[in-house]
Prior knowledge:
Blueprint: H1 10-27, E1 35-39, H2 42-51, E2 59-61, E3 70-76, H3 82-87, H4 89-92, H5 95-102, E4 105-112, H6 115-118, H7 125-130, H8 132-141, E5 145-151, E6 154-159
Parallel strand pairs: 1-2, 1-3, 3-4
Antiparallel strand pairs: 5-6
Amino acid sequence: AQTGSQQFNVFEAELITQMARVAGEHLGLDAASGLGIVVPHRGQKFMLREMLPAYAEAIDTVERFQGGERDLIIISATVSDREYASAESDFLLEPRRFTVAVSRPRRKVVVVASRAVFDLVPADLDAYERGSLWKRLRHEVEKRVLWQGEIKGHAVTVRAM
Length: 161
């Protein structure tokens, strides 16, 4: 996979690593019940487990995420390449997968996703309808910018509901 477009995304993994460390140090969230990281692909899971060995048990795919609820769930969309996102739209936009991921936090959920995921507009009507949850999320957070800047040459915008 490329460094940030398909089965793993180095940039997203680095952002999530920093968030997890801050959550652990400043909020006291541990891997057992405090913090969970949900990813769509095993490649991203393995990369994050290498980067965050203390949280390895708290990182998994939506289908395999164990341990139920956590105080904070970080969701990594992983995909950043528009063509790949379009080709994988059935998988990425599947509503049950999204619903399971966002139903895991007891207190907060953080979604780390590239604009390619939010801009995804599949030509197929069924795929478009499956993407409505992502579209609604984008609409809800569009105007609430908490921080905007550049990290390692990537434009980053942090939004909130």
